[in-house]
Amino acid sequence: METLDFTLKPEAAAKIHDILTCLAKFSDTVAIEARRERLSFTALNSSKSAYASCSLEGKTFFSTYECRPKNSAADGRFTCSMYSKALLSVFKPRLDDARGKDTAIDRCEVSVQDRPDKTECRFVVKMVCNQGVTKTYKLTYESVEVLHALFDKNAAKNHWSISSGLLKEYIEYFGRKTEQLDIYAEEDRVVFTSFTEKITNGKEILKQPLQTAVAVNVADFEKFSAQERMHTIISVKDFRAIVLHAETLKTSLNAYYSHPTRPLQLNYTSDGMYCEFTLMTAGDYVDTPPPSAAPVGPSRTTSRAPSTATERSESRSFRQDMPPPPAPTTRTSARRLGNSGAARKAPSPIPSEADSESLFVGQDEDAQWDPAESRNDEETLGWDASAENDVAIYPTFRDSGSLARTQSEESADGVAPTQRISQIKGLW
């Protein structure tokens, strides 16, 4: 049989309400873990990217505290889970009730009804008010296995501490619809930038992203030791909930983290209460060195000389390793425009000496890289613009097949005929 009984003062009951309000921002359910020395409230969001835990010391926070789990070992515990809204409705603040002092509570008694002689297991909360009025709440709970997030502070080389009241003033500048928070340190200041990339409000989508940056001087921190030029991104909603709860306790907020994509932990303590929040992070953890002055180097012409020499040497090696394709023995006359005899009579230009240092292929060498063409005289068409065909009114196409069948056309200069004369009868 498990036994859990504790008594709270009105101030302690109000603090539990603040704890439940904070944990409700992370999850709809709250897990309760009772050990012999302390009582813990934990919450884990649905994506398991944020973990929240608030531990209360049995001898310091409570007026009376007793926990005897089934397991008699020292590490025995009692765990259960309940809805956050159900607990919030019970532990609502009653210190300054507008209806008068008669409804203000005098003490709060909590016990767990888990005995074999009882047909129901309940989490019983009794609010003993002034004038002898007692309000009893019996809440159903579910036995669950509580998960805890592990965090190694020894590996967290970045650490800073700041007043929660001062940090609350800064987060008031953040937009309510922003989603992410970027923490960035540079040049004796820390920049908190809240931003979002897209906001959907019904059918309207905000195209321009929201972004608010607040720069905090390092002197405003109680402790600061963090790497500069490193972006650490967390959720704005989680950060705001943590800061608002820490501000109710008037305590300092401590942050521990190593680099982005690794967990970040925020914690604070106050009067027997220890709260810690482990958040997953994103961002860029590559430390960008500050830009250094460019060294004085050679002039532009001198600096480009080695590159040009390298390119020329590569060009020479490329032409030596890859010879041009062999040129065909004969080329069809269809590639020549005009009289072929005139083309032979034209003096060929004196080839200039090839520049071995040039990056371009000369005009004389360009023909060596032309693709080899298959000779097919019967299918070749060309334009006959020779002076011997001036008798025709219009230039004509002739059948190139006649060149293979007649010796006279075979020895004729100019473009091969492409059309039979018998096919043009009737045009005159």
Automatic annotation (TrEMBL):
Compositional bias per record (Low complexity), positions renumbered to this chain: 298-310
Extract the InterPro entries matched here: DNA_clamp_sf, Rad9, Rad9/Ddc1
Domain of life, per UniProt, equals: Eukaryota
The alphabetical list of record keywords is: DNA damage
**GO (cellular component) term, any one:** checkpoint clamp complex
- Kindly give the Pfam families that the UniProt entry links to this protein: Rad9
Q: Which GO terms describe its biological process?
A: cellular response to ionizing radiation; DNA repair; DNA replication checkpoint signaling; mitotic intra-S DNA damage checkpoint signaling
Concerning its family, UniProt says: Belongs to the rad9 family.
Question: What is its biological role?
Answer: Acts in DNA repair and mutagenesis. Involved in promoting resistance to ionizing radiation and UV light, as well as regulating cell cycle progression after irradiation.
Protein name as catalogued: DNA repair protein rad9
State the organism named in the record.
Lophium mytilinum
